[in-house]
Amino acid sequence: MTDGFHLDPPTTENLENAQRGWRTGTLRVSIPAETEYWRVLRAPSRADALSYAEVCYPSDANNRFSPVLSSGAPIPSAYAGASEPIALWEVVLRNIRHGGIKRVPRHETRDRYLVRVKTLRALELLDLRRPAISALVDPGNRPPDLSAAWPVAYETTRLWAQRLVERIPQADGFIYESHQVPGECIVLFQPTAPKVFATIGDAVPVDEGTGRKLLEAQARRANAVVDFGDLPDPPET
Amino acid sequence: MPPSAKSGPVFLNAIVVEDRVPQFRVGELTHVNLVSLLAKRVAALTWGARTTASSSWLWNAMVAKPELFDPLLNVPSHASRWMLFRKDFTGGGFQFETMVEDIDRLSPQPNGLLSLGTSHLDESSLLTLVPATEWKKSDADRIRGYLDIAFDDHVPLAIEVKRATPLKDAVAADRAALIAARREMLESVGWFSSQDLASAATSTTSNASQLAADLRKPGRVLGVRFGQSWCYPKFQFDGRKQIIPEMKQVLAALSPDDQGWDRLQWFLEPNETLKGRPPVDVWETDRARVVDAASKERWNGRD
């Protein structure tokens, strides 16, 4: 099924269109302060998860739109979803529809926490949602599937992110549609002021209690099962 | 009497084409609706219980990925041959069931449609017809691929049925699904037992399990724990059942994994560093690339 997706790198024309769209407001959206989101983070403890959730982090891990580099170093970035399911789908379950194996590996849930956050200030984001994203291409052409891209196409989505950030450095980040469940996600790039969120409530581990139940329920939506490594032994073959 | 999927009405979800522009149609499977639809240029016709067929998944996929459905935009009006696919939510993708000749013959009695390809359309299945006039039967796999991709891109409303499942049953179903997933992974690559490894070893030990554990625990060989036994995927051994040395580097990068299943799954799934190819497919010809791909994984630490 991986052969079914194709994404071209950005062209100069795409980037000029993006710059124009940002300038005219077609591709720019304002998110007010105190807008709530959910984040999923890997951390050694609840306290660390709460601390990590407040800031953008210069991770060099390969994700959909990051790392974006500046002078060879990753720009601090942060992902968040508009709901708990979106945050879980975009991080823990992001491979489940594409891998063919309907099992969520243990390493996807180990030391991961779900944290509710709110933005500390208003954010100006590049709008990559439909229909705004059509402004990246000339009329009649198909816009790039940046949010629908499968993990194997992330090399190209990262290239888009790199070029877009270089062209529009004043943008706080991108807003895009979750490809997995209805709703929106944001990715923020904050080279100078990485603290962008305040946390609300406690961090919830995704492999126990309510976090686990929520994750299991989401996985069932894709006929998948989360392997927490603690189910009883299966019968002998 | 209207047709039913065991306990409820059957819903249609169709794409019709007018002047090469696709349009979405949804409604109940009735004689009137069916005749009305078949009078148009139909690109795809799906039906099932409300929880499955009322979803607009097919339409969303068509809008999002028009290149996948372009061939269906050229279908003739009044197609006389159709390919019927069936998907069961309990597992698997769309399977080609049969060719349907002369659908007009069935349209006066929608119950006739229900009997196609399945004796009991229930709340866990979905049927899709696509015109086959210009397609060969061998094209069935291609269409099935289209449907699988489209459906995978959209969360089916059939989840509503699953949500109603009592938690106890859901846990039991999860356990069964996990066992099935593990079994499928293992069978896809083949495996040796501890005894197999012992018989190939030059060691004089008589304890096969201990010998295998001595290879597994320091990370020289990948073992997966299935029940009370450890199984050793075949791809990590050469023709003389000797361990391929690069395994040690891969296993060191992919840790921790007490039971081995995450590592085995990593070998089997499309990998970004390997341009979408599963590591197991590259392993035979270019192990250095597989080692490199493993080294780029982030199973630990802040991300």
List keywords for this structure.
heterodimer, A: 237 residues, alpha+beta, Diphtheria Toxin, domain 1, five-stranded mixed sheet, 5 helices, B: 303 residues, 2 domains, three-stranded antiparallel sheet, 9 strands, elongated, disordered N terminus
Brief summary:
Chain A is of the alpha+beta class and 237 residues long.
Verbal overview:
The complex is a heterodimer of chains A (237) and B (303). Chain A is an alpha+beta fold and 237 residues long. Chain A has a single domain (2-226), classed as Diphtheria Toxin, domain 1 (Alpha-Beta Complex), CATH 3.90.175. Chain A has five helices and twelve strands. Chain A has helices at 12-24, 46-53, 84-91, 154-167, 209-220, and strands spanning 28-31, 36-42, 69-70, 73-74, 77-81, 103-104, 112-119, 123-127, 173-177, 184-189, 197-205, 225-226. In chain A, the strands form four sheets. Chain A has a five-stranded mixed beta sheet. A three-stranded antiparallel beta sheet of chain A has the order 2-7-11, with helices on both faces. In chain A, strands 3-4 form a two-stranded antiparallel ribbon. In chain A, strand 3 (69-70) and strand 4 form a beta hairpin. The radius of gyration of chain A is 18 Å and the shape is globular. Chain A starts with 11 loop residues before the first helix and ends in an 11-residue tail after the last strand. Chain B is of the alpha+beta class. Chain B folds into two domains: 10-163, no CATH class; 189-295, no CATH class. Chain B has helices at 31-38, 50-53, 57-64, 66-69, 110-114, 140-152, 159-163, 167-189, 194-200, 208-216, 247-253, 261-268, 279-283, 287-295, and strands at 10-18, 21-28, 41-49, 81-88, 91-101, 125-131, 191-192, 224-226, 229-233. A six-stranded antiparallel beta sheet of chain B has the order 2-1-3-6-4-5, with helices on both faces. In chain B, strand 1 and strand 2 (21-28) form a beta hairpin. The longest helix of chain B has 23 residues, at 167-189. In chain B, 36% of the residues are buried. Residues 1-5 and 154-165 of chain B have low confidence and may be disordered. At the A-B interface, helix 5 and strand 12 of A face helix 6, helix 7, helix 8 and helix 12 of B.
